[in-house]
Structures are given as structure tokens and as C-alpha cells.
Amino acid sequence: MTNGSKRQWWQDGVVYQIYPRSFQDSNGDGVGDLPGIESRLDHLLALGVDAVWISPFYPSPMADFGYDVADYCGVDPIFGTIADFDSLIAAVHAHGLKLILDFVPNHTSDRHPWFLESCTSRDNPKRDWYLWRDAKPDGGYPNNWMSNFGGPGWTWDETTGQFYYHSFLRQQPDLNWHNPEVRNAIYAAMRFWLDKGVDGFRMDVLWLLIKDAAFRDNLPNPEWTPGASSFWSVLPTYTADQPETRQIVREMRQILDAYAERVLIGEIYLPLPELVRYYGDSLDGAQMPFNFHLIQTEWAAGPIAALIHEYEALLPPGAWPNWVIGNHDQPRIASRIGPAEARVAAMLLLTLRGTPTIYYGEEIGMTNGNIAPDQVQDPAEKNQPGISMGRDPERTPMLWDNSPHAGFTAGAPWLPVNPAYERASVAAQAAQERSMLALYRRLIALRRSHPALHAGELLDVRAKRGVLSYSRALGSERFQILLNLTTELQTANCGHGHIVLTTIMDGEGARVGGPIAIEASEGLLIALD
Ligand code: GLC
After folding, report:
1. pLDDT tens-place string over residues 94-141
2. If 0-12 CB within 10 Å is exposed, 13-18 middle and 19+ buried, where does residue 520 land?
3. 80, 151, 214, 297: most buried, per Cβ within 10 A?
4. Catalytic amino acids?
């Protein structure tokens, strides 16, 4: 915070994302659940994170594994019961952690009672809760809006003779956010969980929430080539980032602000200039519009330094940054950049200015799972085979120990457990002094204990000969971070001080100053004198 106001827990803390299907199964059905999460809180405590964000566990037909919600105020039996939720939140809070829920306001399941009602007739009171349109005179789609998961975004309803729009699967009809009743129904569901004590929400596809009221055609995308996802054949001109969206984000924020110390996080895939607008004109929007740009930027010192500069420069005064290197929709960082660079990524994520979010398994260097064609679960992959690699690889079960299925389940896991887990598991890594897990624990502990690292200024961001360097400073405390993002030994200049931590986890305590050799894919954290 630069404006001197009181710091909030979500600024100083580290967020940890759990994909509940894949974290810990407690009843042997092969799918993770809420009691499973509760039984693993000791791992989160030992890791040192502050808040847990859980991907959706609401009642759902699971067409999109819970991102198709059939009841905003319940728990799907596969994940447990409301009593299990109450027990989980009590345990989370008893350990001094915070709980953030995933909330899916853009669309419901096609099995949600609202949609079932909306489908009954054209004059049903809930008809206008969704986006219904007539066919074109020739019977064609109402316009050229596409689905993010491939194909046209419109599905025909025989009974009422109209199309409805869905940004994702046909089983995920989009709500009509122009309708005030819809807004109020969603806000009531948010209050249901806030009253239960949840500490915030991660809002799903926040930038897609509202669509053009006139249903104008999206503009053609001159860069699209056949073979790429059909979604990109047009630009999302009238289906994404509409000006009215930010008013809704403000309304959501007001709901949260009626409670103490809650956080609104937005899933927003937009270029930085558009992304930062979601903080709101007077910081009355999302406190943390997710910044996914480390995932999208080339893994090299120059582009990453440029990204940090651009982001910091664009942040409105007083806005708090955040950084992400993976989630349940993105290939795992350790597969994207390799195991050694994944350690450098950990140091980057945990020493940058801004709240880091860790995706489960990153702390043990989990890689993409190999999913055979007959094991594919992801509907996005099934809809457009071969076009994207699908999202199953980053959703494979957490690797806990060397018991069968890595300790994830006593049954048959819903996705295959990555092989070689005996060496990669939490239990194995906890016993290894220089493991990825040891590195994550140390980085998080350092971040927590040094105000310069969680609250300090970010200074001197530069890239030279493949080395990314920057400093963090608060009061008399000052650290320099040097990250070699190349596969060769590099020499860089550092200030006078001593090494606190290296990603290789050796040489700590050594005095440094002036030219310093940095191993290939090594990161150094130096305490300056
Ligand atoms: C978000 C979720 C993704 C889901 C989609 C539709 O992008 O992160 O997993 O498929 O929304 O709800």
C-alpha cells in the first residue's frame, strides 16, 4: 500500500488454490472432498500460506466440474455436506487461515432451478434471467457470438423456440446481468456465504459478465486461422469487458464491504491497461484483479522485466498488485519452463511486490500429467479434441506420500496419479533438505518475517544478460533478488551483503558484493548491508 492506510491480510499473505476434486479424497470415491481438505490443513500450515481458495464445490451436474452451478448455497454430495463446510471453515479459522470461495456469477448449470423455470415458457418470470433470442429469419443463430469451449455460443430450445447464449458449454447458460433480479439473487447467494464467515470470493470470468444489450455481432478476427479454436474466429468485442461490467464489480464490492476485511478477487484475462481498470476508479472495484501475465509472458529476463515495469506503472495509486504462475486452467509451470526454472519462478513469485497465489502442487514442483485419450475428462478438450491440450494435465491428484495413489485416495482416482510420486510427494520432499517443498517453505517464511519482502517497495527492476534483478526495501531493510533465467552461467553485479537463500539452496550466508557468478537457472536472495 502506498497511501499509508492499514494493511490488509490479503496484501501481506500468500493465497493457496485448491482444486477440490484433486486435493484429498476422504471416502474412497476417487474424487477429493471437503473433509479431505480439512484433513490436510497441516500441510498448509507447514507451508506457511495464509489463505485458501477452493474451486467450486456447489451442487452441480459436473459438466464443467463444478463451474456449472445448480445451487449457489449448497455443497455437492461428491464434496460433502454443508456440515462438512461448516467444520472446514471453523478449522481453517481456528488455524488462523482465511477461506476464499470460488463464485461463478456469469452462468449457472442448465439444471439450475432458475434455468429450468426460464425454459418453461417465453413469459415465465425467469425468462429474462438468461439470454434468449429468436433465430434469424433463415433459422440461423441470432448473431456470431461463439463459445469459449468451441462452436457457436447459441443453443436451440425446442419447447420455446428460441436460442439461449452460453459463453462456455451448452450446459452453462449465461445469466442476464442487465436484469436487476439476477443481480439481487446472486448478491443474496454471496451474503449466504459471507454470513457463514467466508473471507472473500474469487469471481469466475468477471470480465465476461455482461454482454451487449443490443446483441451486436462481434467483429471478425483477422488473425484467426482455421484449425485454431473457433472461439477466436471473432473478437470478443461485444461479449467481454463491457463498460457496465465495472459497475457490477462495484456492487459486488459493496456487498463484501458490508462485512469486515473481505476480499474480492477477479478472474480476468485482459491486457494490463484494461485489467487495471477493474480496481475501480476510486479503488472501489476488485481488490485483486488476477494478474495472469507471468503465465502469458515469454520466460526470459527482458520480457518479464518489461512486464513488471508496465504493470507497476499502470497500477492506480494505492492499488495492490498480485501475481500468479498457474491455476486449474493453465499448463503447470514446472512443465512449461522446466524443474530448475520452476524454482526460480517460486523465488520470483514470492519476492515480487504483490500477493502471490500458489496453485496446489506447485510447491512440490508438480508437472503436467500424461492423459491418455480414453482418460480425458475436461469438457473443453472433449469439445475440441487436439486444439488445446486440455486442462486435465494440471488437475491430476496431489502427491502426498508413497502409499497407493500417492495417498490421494483409497479408491480409483478420477484422473491418473502422476508416476514417480515416491520421490516427488510431500512426504518425500519434507525429508529432503533441498527439495522444492523446502524451498517454498523457506521463501514463504522469509516473506512473512521480513516486512521488506511482503510490504516493501519494489526498486531497480532490470534485465541484463538473461538475469532479472530487482530490490525490495522497507525502512533500513533491503534485499536484492537476482534470477538467472538462462541455461548458462551468468555474471551479474550485486550490492554488498550476504546470501540469504539460493534456489539451489547452498552458499547461504556467504558475503557478496560486486560481480557475482550465478549458475544456470539459479536465483539468489541477498540481504544488503
Ligand atoms: C473459468 C474457470 C474455468 C471454467 C470457466 C467456465 O475460466 O477458471 O475452469 O471452465 O470459467 O466457468
Report:
1. 999 999 999 999 999 999 999 999 999 999 999 999 999 999 999 999
2. middle
3. 80
4. 204, 267
> By the 8 A CB rule, do 525 and 501 touch?
yes
* Cα radius of gyration rounded to whole Å, the chain: 23
Tell me the three-class secondary structure of 255-275, residue by residue: HHHCCCCCEEEECCCCCHHHH
In angstroms, the CA 155 to CA 174 distance is 11
Residue type at 413 in one-letter notation: P
Residues in the chain: 529
Give the containing element (helix H, strand E) for 527.
strand 523-528
Which of 22, 64, 106 should be mutated for ligand 1, with most atoms under 8 A from CB? Answer: 64
Task: Output the CA 343–ligand 1 centroid distance in Å.
Answer: 27
**CB atoms near residue 416 (< 10 Å):** 16
Give the strands of the sheet with 162-165, arranged side by side.
132-133, 162-165, 154-157
Which among 436, 272, 458 has a CA at the least distance from the CA of 365? Answer: 436
The owner of cell 472432498 is 33
- Taking CB atoms and a 6 Å cutoff, what residues make up the pocket around ligand 1? 64, 67, 104, 168, 204-205, 267, 328-329
- Give the whole-angstrom CA distance, residue 259 versus residue 194: 8
Can you tell me whether residue 226 is helix, strand or coil? strand
pTM of the model: 0.97
Tell which one of 62, 102, 168 to mutate to probe ligand 1, the residue whose CB is within 8 A of the most ligand atoms: 168
